[in-house]
UniProtKB/TrEMBL annotation:
Domain 2Fe-2S ferredoxin-type positions: 232-317
UniProt-recorded name of the protein: PDR/VanB family oxidoreductase
Membrane among keywords: no
Keywords (A to Z) from UniProt: 2Fe-2S, Flavoprotein, Iron, Iron-sulfur, Metal-binding, Oxidoreductase
Family annotation (Pfam families): Fer2
PANTHER family the UniProt entry points to: CARNITINE MONOOXYGENASE REDUCTASE SUBUNIT, NADH OXIDOREDUCTASE HCR
Domain FAD-binding FR-type: 1-101
Domain of life: Bacteria
Length: 317
């Protein structure tokens, strides 16, 4: 854990604050690469992931952008209401599950709403190294788009296209046109609401972009229909203990209630913190972390959200 202090809290847009974090001891923070995020341990005991959006060469500070989610499970609400300038927080070292492909000949960046946070860091990096790219930033209105003024006055402003829902029809995002040239050395990066991301990725696939050229980062997992969440049993390989997982409880919740300590963070199958080995049985993968190939092996799953297709899963616990 790294202890940091909030040196600046600033209202960036409607419902969005930025938080500048600096090391308490005055030393440098760990280096990070574009697309990285950190775990933030909140005052209410929750742990949440937030992307780093400042330039990767800035190790004297980390900059976060946090949207107050109307359906907040306590994370964004705690950041907005209980974290202030001068507050001390514990954070993890940066991790990168959304890295840039530096061999790309051209990068196309898409940000929807608060999805600008990792995308902005990527734009900073690409601009610094002189790599060709374009950024499409989409939002409901300019007043709801974080860092918009900074971007408009940035050294890469001429590579940014802003698309707002309440603006002229001519400036709306035409993903089909933007993605009409799927050259082998082009890479696409997208972050934002699930619907926005699926639109961009789906359009890219229709235009012939290869899956290896498509990169995404989810902020929230889509909820599985309740009708699909049947009960099943998990067994711990070390002790033989069997636990029933009812339809309304996750495997992680059942394990924790039984005194089995497992690491948890996002609790939505996005971060991969809780990945657990599966020794027997067939998981029902509902995460957004594992690749299709990793899911097909059925030898690990995310107990925070995934379930079982078989009547029992034997876990390496």
């Amino acid at each position: 854990m790294i202890e940091v202090v909030v040196t600046r809290k600033h209202r960036e847009a409607e419902g969005i604050y930025s938080f500048e974090l600096a090391p308490v001891e005055g030393s440098m923070l760990p280096a990070f690469s574009a697309g990285s995020h950190i775990d933030v341990h909140l005052p209410n005991g929750l742990v949440r992931q937030y992307s780093l959006c400042n330039h990767p060469e800035e190790c004297h500070r980390y900059l976060l952008g946090v949207l107050l989610d109307p359906a907040s499970r306590g994370g964004s609400q705690a950041m907005h209401e209980h974290v202030h300038e001068g507050s001390r927080l514990r954070i993890s070292e940066p991790r990168n599950l959304f890295p840039l492909e530096h061999a790309a000949g051209y990068s196309v960046l898409f940000a929807g709403g608060i999805g600008i946070t990792p995308i902005l860091c990527m734009a900073e990096r690409l601009a610094r190294i002189g790599a060709p790219f374009e950024l499409h930033y989409c939002g409901r209105s300019a007043g709801r788009m974080a860092f918009i003024e900074y971007i408009r006055h940035s050294p890469f402003a001429d590579r940014v296209h802003v698309h707002v829902d309440d603006g002229e029809e001519s400036q709306r995002l035409d993903a089909a046109q933007v993605l009409s040239m799927p050259a082998a050395d082009r890479h696409l990066y997208v972050c934002g609401p699930n619907g926005f991301m699926e639109h961009v990725l789906g359009t890219a696939r229709e235009r012939g972009w290869a899956e290896a050229q498509l990169h995404r980062e989810y902020f929230a997992a889509a909820a599985a229909p309740a009708s699909e969440a049947g009960g099943f049993e998990v067994q711990l390989a070390s002790s033989g203990l069997c636990l029933q997982v009812p339809a309304n409880r996750s495997v992680a919740q059942v394990l924790l209630e039984a005194g089995i300590d497992i690491p948890l963070s996002c609790e939505q199958g996005i971060c991969g913190t809780c990945i657990t080995r599966v020794l027997e049985g067939e998981p029902d993968h509902r995460d957004m972390f594992l690749t299709d190939a990793e899911r097909a092996r059925n030898d690990q799953f995310t107990p925070c959200c995934s379930r079982a297709r078989s009547t029992r899963l034997v876990l390496d616990l």
